[in-house]
Structures are given as structure tokens and as C-alpha cells.
Amino acid sequence: MPPTLPRSLDPLPDESLPGYVLRLAHRLELTPARVLALTLMAETTRNPYPSRLSHELMVKLDPATRATFSTATRLNHAEADALTLQFLAGRYPIPEAPPAHRRYGSQRASRQWWLLTGPTRYCPDCLSGDGSPIQQAHGGPWRRSWRLAVVFACTRHRLLLRHSCPDCGRNVHGHRGAQERIPLIAGQGIPDLHPTQCRWDATRSSRTSEVGAQCRARLDRPGSPALDATAVALQQRLNQALDPDNHEPVLSAGELTEPVRYFTDLRLATHLVYATWDQARELAPATEFTAAVDAYVQRNAPTANFKPAPLAWAPLDAKVAAGLLLSADHILNRDSAAAVRQELHNLLPDKLFQAGRTSVARHFFDSRDECSPALQRALTPGVRRYSCTRRAGQRIRAPELHTDLPPENVPQQIPHEIAEPHLRQFTGISHRLLHRYAAIRLVQMIIGGSLGDAAFYLGVKAIPNPSHGYGRVWGSGSTVGAWIRRCGVDEELRTAIGVIAQDLRQRPAVNYHHRRAALHTWALPAPLWHRIIDQHAPGSVGVDYRDEFFRLHASATIWSKTVLSERCCAPPCLLPVITSHAAPNGNHVQQRLPIWICGRPSRSPKTYTRRLTAALDSVAADLRATVDSMPPGAVLIGK
Questions:
Q1: What pTM value is reported for the model?
Q2: pLDDT given at position 101
Q3: Whole-angstrom distance between the N-terminal and C-terminal Cα of the chain?
Q4: Taking the CA atoms of the chain, what radius of gyration do you get in angstroms?
Q5: Are the C-beta atoms of 40 and 54 separated by less than 8 Å?
Q6: What is the pLDDT of residue 395?
Q7: Which residues lie closer than 8 Å to 293 by C-beta, 6 or more apart?
Q8: Environment class of residue 87 by beta-carbon count within 10 Å: exposed (0-12), middle (13-18) or buried (19+)?
Q9: Which of 23, 65, 179, 497 lies in disulfide reach of 42, CB 3.0 to 4.6 Å?
């Protein structure tokens, strides 16, 4: 059993574990290192040197360590947990539990935590205490919230938090360098220090203390300037979102969301503001902190010999943090999601491939599942990057849609009665192009890969002739791709296509891929075409429908009805005629093609036109039955 200390202390509200140990050591007239050895025996058994105890203990105590600490300090388990950041579980983007214990040489700040794990900010008025005897003797609390990047001000005293000693200028409770481990308490071997004194020790070893190399300045000296109302209001809203007793949602990117998602949004927006400060400073209103951010960005700008690490958490200087957070909140706290999307895209490169390679895009996709849905919809079209899988030794885009709809059941042209109810909400684009794109995009969502791979699977090819109204409808450089980026409807369109997939799954399964493969070399036999003409269009005036030109066009119409596609996507044996501008006699194609060949409802009062249309429909129905009964890989040949 661990020993019980002769005296203990009641924790103060919002007090952190290092602050409690400092006050307890001062009361017992021991060094913090000795108190750590006595109260964290479970930890010191694994790691016999208290100076090597990790800062990760501030996040959560494991059961064995908590039991030892509670017994030694006479606190219950709830009071011991209250000294850590466990109260933020589910409200702030930090791990639910600290990582597995590692060797002390690798216990450094984890960049995925948006925490100030080493040095800390502080309010001098809070450290001076509330005037009670216990706080007059041992000082006020070192608050847990000061360790968070989003806490830059003390709303109780309306002061901006400090981060450095007023005498030596060193970071408070900081370590010597970025490559050094981060201890739970800095300078813990120095004796006779008040909890509110600077613990900077210039000596290389805590076992040899030299008074001349230690700062020992008091940190609870007043003098910080009062904050303006804008900064105080933002800090109050952030504190309210951190409050575990507050169950209200938070506005982020134009929609209400959970606090933990809001703070993830705020972290990503802060990084975007920092990475694009030259443009972002013009979007946010000028504040007293703008000059501090200017200096910080200029000081950390990359040079030939220096490349700064990505901004994984806000800077330690509260002025810089306040400036970045105010700008990020200005972007996220807009009236509508469209306004937020526009603000975000104004800060990103215009070209999609450039935006997708920025550090902002990397941070976004690393945290995409933790973001709010509104920010996902706002950022995805501008920084699109795809998850990858391996196929044939290459990394390709992984499938997005988990459905039992096989890709072979997707036609080249989704039926109008299925597609239009879900696509009619989109404006500013030709719905003919949008319906074509929806089929290609659906196949890509099912099989993965690129849009070009999906188009190849569907048998869709780009026809350069604009008179046929096809052209390239896939890819970021297409008409539809440019419209998606401009309007920011990537997520909405993806959702609509997912619903279309569900509707297709409810219909009888048809293997359109098998139909296209079986009819790849098919054309309407000439004898059959002649019988149809003789029976349904005898003696047509001025037009010889027996012409080869009309037979191939009628073949394309039957093919499109069979595979549910468009005539311009017909097999190669028909493409030379279909893509030509003029018929053999020199007349324009559109002047020679009757309505029944184009596949549109007949408006002609002539009886033979209606009869020919019905005849082609009958041939298409028979052809569907024939092809569906054929084994896989079989090809139907008709001349």
C-alpha cells in the first residue's frame, strides 16, 4: 500500500494536476519531485525518475495511478479525476485516454492534441488567489483550462493570459527545447519555490541547483491590460462550449453541431487562417491582435534553411491565438453554409490539384470524421482528396458507396423517372449533362478508381463533335466538374446519387454490362429492316428508307432502347455513320432523320411513322429477351 502523506490540500476549482502538486509540495516543504515520487508510485515503479513523468498524465490517470494518488493525498477518485482534462471527454478533440506508456525519451507533445501540453498560459490575478488564508499562503489555482489552445483570456478578470515570465521572458513551465521530453512539472527539483514563482532552471541537471541560474520571479504580479468586448465575448462563448453542464449545440459553418465537432472545425479554420494569413487578414475585422499575428507569421515564414512545422495547435502567445481564433470564428460564425463555403474557398487555391495538396487539406482529411457535416460539405469540393486502395500494384481511389447494387446493373442513361426527382433541385447546369454524369459518378462510387475508369466501364466515350451534344462530362475540367466546384454541391450531389442507387436497387436486376458486350458488333440485319419498311412504310414519298444510312441509324435507336443509353454511345460499327454531319447524298443528318429513328415521341400524323416507331420498340423488346438469355461472354452478330 502506498504511504499516506501527513497533510494534504483540497483541490481548487478548475485546478490542474501539476498546479495541485506545486501547492501540495509548498505546504509540505518538499520539492515537487519528492511529492510526485510519493503520490504517483504506480508511475514511478515503471519510471523511477520523477523528472521523466510525462505530461500525458494531465489528460487522464489510469486506474492504478489514480488509486495510488488518491490514497496518498486522501482524495476520492472523483477529486483526483477532476485534476485532469478528463472532464473534456466528448466535448474537446483530445484522446479519451493517454497513449500507451512509452520510453521517457519519446514522451513529447502529441500534435493531434490541440493542447499547450508543455508551457502554459496564466492569469496573474487568478494566481494571486481570492484572499482566503489557504490561497494567501500557497497561491491560487493553476487552471486546467489554461492548457487549452482555445483559452486565451480570463473572463473573470477580463485579462489577456500571459505565457512568459515578466523577468526572464521564458515560457512558464516550459522545457528547454522542442526535441526534449515534456515533463509533468518543469524545474521540479528546485527547493523552496512558491507555486507562483518562475521555475526556469538553466542548469542541465535537476540534481545540481545553482541559485544564480534560476529565475524565481513571482508570476502573480498584476499589470495585464484589459481586453475589449469582442475578445471577451468570444472567450465566453468558447467557455460555454467547454462547460460539461451545458448541453446546448454550437453554431458552426451555418448549422448547429456538437461542441467536439465545433472545436475540430475551429482548429481547422484556425490553421487555414494561419496558412493563408495574407488573404485571411482582409476578411476578418481588424483587431488589436492583428499586428501580433503579422509578426508571428513573418517570424515563422519558411526560408531556404528553415521550414516550420505545420500549425497543429494555436501558438503559445495569447495575442496571436486571439487574433487567429477571432478570424477563424468570423468565418465559421456566418449566417448560412453558403457564406461559409464562399469564405473558405476564397482562401484556397483556385486549382483543385493545388488545394488538395496543401497542409490544410491534409489536416482536413485526417480529421474529416470529427468535423461537423456542414464544414465537410463546405470544404470537400475545394480540397477533394480520395481515400486509396491497392489494385494491381497501384494506389487508386477506394469505393465510396457501400451498396449491394452491382455496377453492371447501372445503365449508361439512368431512367428519367428515377433520376429527375433527385436531380431537379440542381440548377445552373444542363440536366442532360447532369444525368450522364450521374451514371458515371454512380459507377465510380461503387467500384472506385477515377471517373475515367467508370466511364470506360460504362462504355462511354467523349465525342468531340458538339453538334451531338455529348462531349466530356467527367473530370474536374469538364462542364459538370466546373459547375460542381463553382456551386459547391459535391456532397449534395453525392447524396442524391446515393438515393438514386437505392431506387435502382428496387427495380428488377438487369445486367446492362452484359447487354452492351453482347451487342458490341451488332447491327439490324438488312433483310429484317427491309421487311419492316415494306410492312410499315410502303411507298414513302421522297425518302428511300431502304438506304443503308437509315438502317444503321435505326440499329442505333434499337441498341439505345435495349441497353438503356443514347444513340451517340452506340457500338463502333455504327459510330462512323452516327458521327457524320451529312448523309451520302449531301443532305444534313438532322434533315434526313425522321422522328421515329431519333427515338422521340412521334408528332407526325402519318400512320407509317407511328407504325415504324412501334416496330422498332418490338424489335428492341425481342432483342432484350434474346440477349438476356445468352451466356456471359457470348456476342450477338447481326448484319
A1: 0.65
A2: 43
A3: 94
A4: 35
A5: no
A6: 60
A7: 277, 281, 319, 320, 323, 324, 327
A8: middle
A9: 65
